[in-house]
Amino acid sequence: MQLRTLFSLPTLLIALKEMSPSFWSSLMEQPLRHEDKPVLTRLEDIENVITDHLQTLSDLRSTLRDIRVKLQIEQEEETTMFEEEMRQKLSHIEDLLKDQNLRTEGEMIPEKDNEKKIILDNAEYLEGALSEDPIEESAEETEQEQDTEEEETQRRSPSVEQRRSPSEAQRRSPPVEQRRAPPEAQRRNPPPEVHGAARIELEIRCLQQALRDFDAILQQLQEESVCPPRRFHRGRFLREEERYMKCAFCGEMGTHYSDSCIFVRYAVDRRRMIDESAKCAMCLEYSCQRQEFCSKYRARCFHCREFGHHSALCEFPERSDATRARITEVRNRRHNCATRMDELRRELARL
């Protein structure tokens, strides 16, 4: 439109007889060069070149949009894979702890059952100690008969018994019954305290491994670069001329900057709106010459400090928020794990 306005001036000057048509034709026929390149002077040629350039720019913009969408999809897939991997690791740790608790609880015998087994084992032991085989009974009967005869002999001849030495009396005394070894069941079933200590120590080892896994995940997350959160609806206009500035997304005037819009919060939706309305991605304006001719061409993004896009279209704050949320979740789970381990250590110390 501005080019056509410029070329309409010679026609007005000729109509006002301020310039002759021949003079204008002679001016247009003179060859013009800029940096050793010919300059187009005919309006038709200029419009054709502009149309070709606009078509090329449109194709490039479509290509860049496709590349941006592809990169965004890849980043989302990487983020999803990372989150899924973290969930699987955390779920695996929780399953290990649950399985260990169930296994130890299943192996431990309740206290009442232990008491019953101990009573039964003691009863078997007492029965075995009281019951004697026929050979032992006959030996005891013979010994008793000998003792009776010796008592009678002692009554008849006490001097012989008095002359007998103490060692001989001990040898003639009946042997002391040997005690049986404790039943095998008592050796196989230790007291409940032993089971409890083993269970607690095993669970402590599992929790220590979980703490190491949490530390590795935290280190990986903390190495990722982040930026401050996007400040929604907190923009304040400092200059007088900005009072009439419209938000590029919701259209409200003088209330907030486009980066602080709460109606369109995510960068993906904002980029789609800008692309559909054919606005410039650097200044968010429709009437812009784009590329290096844009007034915001050399303005850095407030969030990622890169060039080529407006701060309102930056996706770095969303990725930073997701990273901070994962760090908080992992820290909470690590804290719960450490608290549980302290409780188990105190319980183990009381045993």
From TrEMBL:
Superkingdom field? Eukaryota
User: Which stretches does UniProt call biased (Acidic residues)?
Assistant: 133-152
List every stretch annotated Disordered.
130-194
Signal peptide feature range: 1-15
Composition bias, Basic and acidic residues? 161-171, 177-187
Which keywords accompany this UniProt record?
A: Signal
What is the protein name stated in its UniProt record?
CCHC-type domain-containing protein
Report the source organism: Nippostrongylus brasiliensis (Rat hookworm)
